[in-house]
TrEMBL record:
GO molecular function terms attached to this record: scavenger receptor activity
Compartment list: Membrane
Protein name per Swiss-Prot or TrEMBL: Uncharacterized protein
InterPro entries: CD36_fam
Transmembrane segment boundaries: 223-245
Similarity section: Belongs to the CD36 family.
Keyword field contains Membrane: yes
Keywords: Glycoprotein, Membrane, Transmembrane, Transmembrane helix
Chief location: membrane
UniProt source species: Rotaria socialis
One GO CC annotation: cytoplasm
Keyword Transmembrane: yes
Length: 257
């Protein structure tokens, strides 16, 4: 990831500020099968902070025998700068400073839709979050690290001050004159799906088959080289043992005569 500066606010950052490897969301690492990366941290410029993709499972989809499924984790980098798989997921993340320098802090929050994965009772709304409807997922081809499909689902919320009102008998309202209260209110739910086109998938499948065969040959050669090395060591030991045995026999004959 390179240095970043927001065009909306004075927010700036550079790669030296982070304690973990960060990707820009345009390129991804080779994952291997099984995966050698439990998490992929991606800097998201829209929120001026990284979000975490965490390995969930390996599935067979889109004609590929193996795809690694990663899910979105809203890890608060300010509370867990390591951004590893042990970091707890936050129920909401304050992104106010990224959107405006004039709005007070703790005003705009990022969450999963319907606060998926967290207790939403404090919102006084009977949300019923569901994995298939509200979780964000991305499927990677493991050998090349190519994302095949990404489903991004996030929710923007405001933690606004609301003036209390008095309801009159005629249905009108008047200010109550009491202190305003804060209400956590959902504003926008973004649901975006991106899928690699069929032609690219077909090309990638062909490439994957070739790479798998190359990997198989490589592994086979490694096994063959290991066997050759093992046999060579045994042969050397046998030769050394024969030489020593011959010397001992000669010494024994010399003693006798």
């Amino acid at each position: 990831m390179v240095d970043f500066a927001s065009e909306y606010t004075p927010f700036k950052t550079s790669f030296e500020n982070w304690q973990t490897t960060m990707f820009d969301g345009m390129t991804f690492p080779i994952l291997g099968n099984p995966t050698n990366r439990k998490v992929i941290n991606v800097f998201q410029p829209d929120f001026c902070r990284p979000v975490q993709l965490r390995y969930n499972r390996t599935v067979s989809k889109f004609g590929f025998p193996h795809l690694h499924e990663y899910v979105l984790k809203l890890v608060d980098v300010e509370k867990c700068p390591e951004m590893d798989e042990f970091c707890p997921e936050a129920d909401k993340i304050d992104i106010t400073k990224c959107l405006s320098a004039e709005i007070p802090a703790e005003t705009l929050y990022l969450t999963k839709p319907h606060l998926y994965g967290h207790n939403s009772s404090y919102t006084n709304v009977d949300f019923k979050p569901d994995f298939d409807k509200h979780e964000s997922t991305i499927y990677f081809e493991p050998i090349t690290g190519t994302p095949i499909q990404a489903q991004l689902r996030i929710q923007l919320n405001t933690n606004a001050w609301i003036d209390r009102l008095t309801l009159n008998p005629d249905g009108s309202t008047d200010p109550s004159g009491t202190r305003a209260v804060r209400r956590f209110t959902p504003m926008v739910w973004i649901d975006q799906k991106i899928t690699v086109n069929e032609e690219a998938i077909k090309t990638l499948k062909t490439l994957t088959v070739v790479l798998e065969k190359i990997n198989y040959v490589h592994q086979s050669l490694n096994i063959l080289y290991t066997m050759i090395a093992f046999v060579s060591v045994i042969a050397i030991l046998l030769v050394v043992e024969l030489i020593l045995l011959t010397r001992r026999n000669k010494m024994a004959k010399s003693v006798l005569y």
